[in-house]
């Protein structure tokens, strides 16, 4: 089990997977056929013993695999009893404290029995468990080949043996394999990370290391080379992307601390091959011939494996055998689709061999083509051989292995070591839906083609040796050309005519794979929308009716101001009312019934006009003032005349100010609706709390720039301001915790994003940031202080080194404090998230251009306020606007799953970041689309909210891609219509284009070239185009272009 400080169980994942197990169990019970996987068991008993050694701790079998699957951790000395009604766990006191979180209301009941030192009490617990087993039914499911050992297991087996006459044991291993075989999204992501890391070591480290050793003719044993490869797992830089590392294909959110070896690196050569990969590397030296390398990494306990065969100076026979193996391997992968039976996959491999020129090689082929892989490195109940009757399902993962053993070499270089050889290929592959042509290979980055796996080192020597005796011979007038001549230079002969064509092909393949993945994501999102929003959903806004508001100025006549006797216009700010003299009586009006007040001068009199709210008069853009009887008669205005202009102006100003105050109060009330009152902070009294001094907070508590300190308490954080003010942040209200180092920035940051907003001073905020500047105030770059005494580059170099040390120390201090915050809030599931600067891009989310960076769970901008934190799980789709040739920038629109939430806009992103943004969105499984124009999202979201069911039935978000395609086709048609224009029209178009900025749209340039054509008037064409844009919910792009171009001509 992991260190106790790191154990954090997820009740949600536990109950979700337990429900999946119960569902499969119940479905199997209903079949009542002899092929029942669960064997009609009424209970399942899984006993995990004590981990005896480091080797045992690294092994994975059905017992601890089920624990990892349900809990995410291994719990030794623990007994699990599962029934269809509940779960009973027998474990020690310390482990029981971690398991308590599994007790969730309205979920499957979980009972925990705590073992102690009392032997009688422990025995009574086992008796209670046996009673649960017998009460459930006559059959109990156990693991037939259980590898668990230890005193706890021995004690349980002795107690359980007393039930041998009452209950029947059935092997539950195949059933557990079925339940755990289909991986969910998080499991597939872990297997992907493990696979790409394994392929990274194989392709980018092992191949280079091996070829360098052979090229330099060095001697190294198989064991030494294997150990050298195994040590690479500790190279942090090797598993990082961007400037800090050398891995260009590093997945988003990858953490190399999660890596561990599943299959330790194994290197074989020199004729001694074990294709089962069970033997340890020997002490024989690496031999330049056929070399087999295999390895496999784990990521978050999920395994992967890859094996490759490398041919050094191969002959034609060996190349032919390898090409046959490649075809067999590809045929097997092509069969890994939903609905295919396991034995059919093996039969496909045999059929390819029998159809080849050497069908007798069936005898040399492996007896299976792989097995299931996941938490277990090899699922013994899911082996793809001739007898496998399991049906493959979408989401299963396999370690596909094909190979030939004991092949004869017709022309060996070394008769002792090269006379016989073997070939082996292995990949980690996911089963795909039946509609796809083949399975998805996670380890494809480790190339298998013969050009990538063949090496030639001795061709120059052989060519010279063969050419010399040939020239001395008088019997032959010509030299027989060696078939391998030129093999050394073959790497310099490209398959394409142009240098950049190879990279272009790779980009096209990458784009095709990305497009296919996006197609799957959009289909999945559409099906989720149809499932979520049924025909009964209706309008998401609901049908709430605005209520008539009654305003009361005075409850009793005694509350009237004393000046009402004068029968003048009186403003009573205390009661938010205006008292007007009407027909010799003072009549009060509440300020909320008034619209405004105006004054005008005429004939020596000042006229005060007071306008009232009435039906048909909108308040701003909305009519928020409903009326009890809109059909009644209303007074719209009252006018008063006076010769005292100063008084009338004063009354008007007082009414206006009171109206503003009332509106402000109403707005503040609305803004405060989502502000919740936090619980009280529980301070730490037993010791001094962890504290970080000399920091600043944003938003600031006052206008002056004054620092403070932040402390970690039992249930939250407390910021102490030097002005004796305090800000409390409870762990239960923290949604995300970020740490941003000062690399490339002027400040180092700890940022807290809240679930519910809080008040800091008079501001409502959901983001609180603690920061410290990374610059040294004592350092003066103007030439004073230190430079008075020293000159030259030495002082500059020393200052740079000091700056690096200071920044490194700051990052370390803030990171350690952020981790302490996460440890203190681990019960709330808190973890430190860190932006990936290498994946960042510039954009304008609010007012200015800033660097926007992805994290593991979010897309953030933490440098300048207003801050931006977008949780990835809240995103429905992303649409990229203004993506078209000729524009330097594009925009990003984030649509949230909560359709009532306004879409987030990130504008003016440089077009150079487009591919990076697409790659990141695709890697985190967010569906995106792109189009050439800006859309009117207010109108679109109103349509979606009004009837989401109809929206998804009509195609959902597919209209975003449809508009992109149709727009492109329209532009092609327009371009083709102008191909026959004369040269003068073309020159006019070019001169007109120069009047616009580079960001001008294609429509502007096309329109300028058609001015002299006969047909519709230009104004009519503009109106027609604008009408079409409004009908499609589009914003007129030409308005934006013209507004940009008014700033001046392009220089």
Question: How would you describe what is shown here?
Answer:
The model is unreliable at 1-5, 52-58, 460-495, 619-623, 777-791, 963-1015 and 1033-1051 (pLDDT under 50). The chain has 24 helices and 38 strands. The chain is of the alpha+beta class and 1051 residues long. It starts with 10 loop residues before the first helix and ends in a 6-residue tail after the last helix.
For the largest beta-sheet, the strand count, sense and barrel status come to: 8 strands, mixed
Coarse morphology: elongated
Low-confidence stretches: 1-5, 52-58, 460-495, 619-623, 777-791, 963-1015, 1033-1051
Number of helices: 24
Report the strand count: 38
Return the average pLDDT rounded to an integer: 81
Quick gist of this model?
Helices cover 33% and strands 22% of the residues.
Please give a handful of descriptors for the protein shown.
1051 residues; eight-stranded mixed β-sheet; disordered N terminus; 33% helix
How do the helices and strands line up, and which of them pair or pack?
Elements: H1 11-31, E1 43-48, H2 54-58, H3 62-71, E2 78-83, E3 87-92, H4 93-99, E4 110-115, H5 119-136, E5 139-142, H6 151-160, E6 168-171, H7 173-181, H8 185-215, H9 222-230, E7 259-268, E8 290-299, E9 302-303, E10 306-312, H10 316-334, H11 342-354, E11 370-372, E12 379-383, E13 397-408, E14 420-430, E15 440-441, H12 450-453, E16 454-455, H13 459-472, H14 501-532, E17 570-572, E18 577-582, E19 585-590, E20 594-602, E21 605-612, E22 637-642, H15 645-671, E23 691-698, E24 708-712, E25 716-721, E26 726-730, E27 734-740, E28 747-760, E29 763-773, H16 793-824, E30 832-833, E31 841-843, E32 850-854, E33 858-861, E34 868-871, E35 875-881, E36 889-896, E37 904-910, H17 914-923, E38 928-930, H18 937-946, H19 948-953, H20 958-977, H21 983-993, H22 1002-1008, H23 1018-1031, H24 1037-1045
Parallel strand pairs: 1-5, 3-4, 5-6, 10-16, 27-30, 35-38
Antiparallel strand pairs: 1-2, 2-3, 7-8, 8-9, 8-10, 11-12, 11-13, 13-14, 14-15, 17-18, 18-19, 20-21, 21-22, 23-24, 23-29, 24-25, 25-26, 27-28, 28-29, 31-32, 32-33, 33-34, 35-36, 36-37
């Amino acid at each position: 089990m992991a260190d106790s400080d790191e154990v954090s169980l997820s009740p949600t994942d536990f109950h979700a997977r337990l429900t999946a197990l119960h569902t499969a169990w119940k479905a199997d019970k209903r079949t009542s056929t002899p092929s029942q996987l669960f064997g009609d068991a009424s209970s399942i008993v899984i006993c995990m013993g004590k981990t005896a050694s480091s080797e045992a701790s690294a092994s994975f079998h059905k017992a601890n695999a089920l624990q990892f699957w349900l809990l995410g951790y291994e719990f030794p000395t623990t007994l699990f009893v599962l029934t269809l009604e509940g779960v009973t766990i027998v474990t020690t006191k310390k482990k029981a404290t971690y398991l308590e979180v599994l007790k969730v209301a309205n979920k499957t009941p979980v009972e925990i029995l705590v073992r102690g030192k009392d032997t009688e009490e422990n025995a009574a617990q086992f008796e209670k468990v046996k009673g649960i087993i017998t009460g459930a039914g006559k059959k109990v499911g156990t693991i037939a080949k259980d590898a668990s050992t230890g005193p706890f297991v021995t004690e349980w087996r002795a107690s359980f043996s007393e039930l041998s006459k009452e209950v029947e044991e059935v092997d539950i291993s195949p059933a557990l394999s079925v339940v755990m075989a289909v991986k969910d999204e998080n499991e597939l992501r872990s297997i992907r990370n493990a696979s790409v890391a394994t392929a990274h070591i194989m392709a980018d480290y092992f191949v280079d290391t091996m070829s360098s050793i052979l090229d330099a003719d060095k001697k190294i044993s198989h064991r030494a080379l294997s150990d050298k490869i195994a040590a690479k797992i500790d190279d942090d830089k090797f598993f990082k992307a961007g400037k800090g590392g050398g891995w260009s294909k590093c997945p988003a959110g990858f953490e190399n601390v999660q890596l561990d070896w599943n299959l330790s690196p194994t290197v074989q050569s020199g004729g001694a091959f074990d294709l089962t990969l069970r033997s340890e590397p020997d002490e024989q030296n690496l031999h330049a011939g056929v070399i087999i390398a295999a390895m496999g990494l784990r990521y978050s306990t999920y395994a992967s494996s890859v094996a490759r065969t490398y041919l050094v100076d191969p002959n034609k026979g060996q190349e032919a055998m390898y090409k046959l193996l490649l075809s067999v391997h590809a045929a097997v992968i092509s069969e890994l689709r939903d609905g295919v039976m396991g034995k059919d996959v093996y039969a496909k491999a045999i059929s390819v061999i029998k159809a080849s020129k050497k069908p007798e090689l069936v005898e040399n082929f492996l007896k299976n083509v792989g097995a299931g892989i996941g938490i277990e490195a090899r699922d013994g109940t899911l082996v793809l051989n001739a007898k496998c009757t399991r049906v493959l399902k979408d989401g299963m993962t396999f370690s596909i292995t094909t190979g030939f053993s004991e092949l004869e070499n017709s022309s060996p270089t070394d008769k002792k070591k090269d006379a016989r050889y073997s070939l082996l290929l292995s990949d980690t592959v996911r089963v795909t839906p039946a509609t796809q042509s083949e399975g998805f290979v996670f380890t494809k980055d480790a190339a298998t083609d013969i050009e990538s796996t063949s090496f030639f080192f001795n061709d120059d020597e052989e060519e010279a040796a063969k050419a010399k005796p040939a020239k001395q011979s008088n019997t032959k007038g010509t030299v027989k050309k060696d078939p391998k001549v030129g093999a050394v230079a073959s790497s310099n002969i490209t398959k394409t005519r142009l240098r950049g064509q190879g990279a272009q092909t790779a980009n096209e393949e990458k784009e095709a794979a990305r497009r296919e993945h996006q197609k799957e994501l959009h289909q999945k999102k559409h099906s989720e929308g149809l499932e979520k929003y049924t025909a009964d959903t209706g309008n998401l806004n609901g049908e709430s009716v605005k209520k008539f508001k009654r305003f009361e100025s005075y409850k009793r006549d005694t509350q009237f101001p004393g000046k009402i006797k004068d029968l003048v216009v009186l403003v009573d700010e205390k009661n938010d009312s205006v008292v007007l003299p009407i027909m010799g009586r003072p009549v009060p009006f509440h300020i909320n019934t008034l619209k405004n007040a105006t004054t005008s001068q005429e004939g020596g009199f000042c006229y005060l006009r007071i306008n009232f709210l009435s039906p048909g008069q909108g308040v701003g853009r909305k009519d928020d003032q409903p009326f009890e009887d809109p059909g009644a008669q209303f007074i719209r205005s009252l006018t008063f005349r006076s010769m005292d202009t100063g008084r009338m102006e004063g009354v008007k100003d007082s009414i206006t100010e009171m109206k503003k105050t009332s509106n402000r109060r109403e707005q503040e009330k609305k803004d405060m609706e989502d502000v919740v009152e936090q619980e009280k902070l529980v301070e730490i009294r037993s010791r001094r709390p962890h504290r970080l001094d000399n920091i600043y907070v944003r938003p600031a508590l006052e206008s002056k720039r004054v620092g403070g300190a932040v402390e970690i308490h039992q249930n939250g954080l407390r910021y102490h301001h030097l002005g004796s003010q305090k800000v409390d942040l409870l762990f239960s209200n923290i949604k995300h915790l970020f740490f941003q180092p000062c690399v490339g920035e002027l400040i180092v940051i700890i940022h807290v994003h809240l679930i519910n907003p809080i008040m800091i001073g008079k501001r409502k905020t959901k983001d609180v940031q603690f920061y410290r500047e990374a610059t040294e105030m004592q350092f003066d770059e103007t030439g004073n202080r230190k430079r008075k005494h020293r000159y030259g580059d030495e002082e500059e170099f020393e200052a740079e080194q000091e700056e690096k040390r200071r920044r490194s120390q700051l990052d370390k201090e803030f990171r350690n404090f952020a981790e302490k915050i996460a440890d203190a809030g681990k019960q709330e599931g808190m973890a430190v998230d860190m932006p990936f600067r290498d994946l960042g891009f510039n954009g304008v989310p609010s007012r200015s251009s800033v660097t926007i960076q992805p994290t593991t769970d979010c897309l953030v901008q933490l440098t300048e306020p207003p801050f931006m934190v977008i949780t990835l799980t809240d995103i429905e789709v992303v649409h990229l606007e203004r993506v078209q040739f000729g524009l330097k920038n594009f925009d990003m629109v984030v649509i949230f799953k909560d359709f009532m939430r306004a879409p987030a806009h990130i504008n003016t992103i440089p077009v150079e970041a487009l591919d990076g943004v697409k790659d990141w969105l695709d890697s985190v499984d967010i569906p995106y689309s792109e189009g050439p124009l800006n859309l009117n999202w207010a109108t679109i979201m109103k349509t979606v909210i009004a009837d989401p069911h109809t929206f998804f039935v009509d195609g959902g978000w597919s209209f975003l891609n449809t508009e992109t395609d149709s727009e492109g086709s329209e532009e092609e048609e327009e371009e083709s219509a102008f191909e026959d224009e004369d040269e003068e029209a073309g020159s006019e178009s070019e001169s007109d284009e120069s009047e616009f900025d580079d960001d001008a749209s294609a429509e502007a340039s096309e329109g300028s070239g058609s001015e002299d054509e006969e047909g519709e008037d230009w104004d009519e064409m503009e109106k027609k185009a604008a009408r079409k844009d409004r009908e499609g919910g589009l914003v007129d792009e030409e308005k934006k272009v013209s507004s940009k171009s008014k700033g001046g001509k392009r220089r």
